[in-house]
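hey so i finally got around to running both of the ones u sent me last week. sorry it took forever, my laptop kept dying halfway thru and i had to restart like 3 times lol. anyway pasting them below in the order u listed, first the sequence line then the structure token line for each. didnt double check formatting much so if smth looks off just lmk and ill redo it

first one:
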Amino acid sequence: MKKTSIHAKTKEMKVNPDYFTGKVLLQELSSIVKSQEQKIFHVTFQNGARTKLHTHTGGQILIATKGKGSLEMYLKSGNNKSKFLIKKTDKINLFEGDIVYIPAKKLHTHGSIDKNRVFSHIAINANASTNKAAKTTWYESDFKTKVIKILV
């Protein structure tokens, strides 16, 4: 058994700037606690930074730990995997202590909504099955009406 704190000095991961808008710090926690059923991250979004649109192969749980953020859900239309139309279907604000579940394969984005403050959350990405690790697919979009390409 391994105990740690999200406030402990853990190794920060280098984030791929193609997957975020603005400055984001990422601490991978799952390896510290030796979790094999999910990937766990502590994510800090600086001054209005957010994720680009993405989906996960398994469900995702977000636990807000600091500041004010949001989660936005989108609906995809069309059969093309890399270019398609989108429509925002839901937006909720997240405050410290809030917990939200995002079902597998749901197109969404989350991050800070305050240009002058930091927002952070713990993200728990469940494995799609016992034999497959959690996978995220990232998209380039205008956040309004269309996805223009698949990033990964």
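and the second one:
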Amino acid sequence: MGNNVFLPIAIALLAVVALSLLVILALVVRRAVLSRSLGAFDCSLRAETIRESGQWRHGLARYGEEQLDWFRVFGVRPVPAESLSRRKLEIIDHRPPEPVETNEVLPEWVVVRCAYGPVIVELAMSEIAFTGLAAWLESAPPGQQPVALG
């Protein structure tokens, strides 16, 4: 009779472990699918308004024809968490991460400060990804604002 008490607990624990493994597998597969896309790169994002500065969120960015799509690392949804229009995105400047950001942003990355309408968006990425972002914005079709490099 003592073993019968532990059987439901063991089944519940097994179910939790199996569900956790499925979620981890889904995250790995999603990241692999997103990373295979042309123009995908690791990118952290933080938005600022007049009232507050947000937290760094880790993710993956991907160039679209008219937008920069940003996906959360720990999300399972196939749609972007943010989609930044190429027409509204303008690079203000870029800098190395500040000492207080070293736990949130990789030290060899650059922080790219962008104007996006009334919001300031900061994107943290590798130097190579920054060069790609600047080139993508500069190659916008005629009539779109040119990128300003600081």
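quick thing i noticed on the 2nd:
The longest helix spans residues 2-36.
anyway thats it, ttyl
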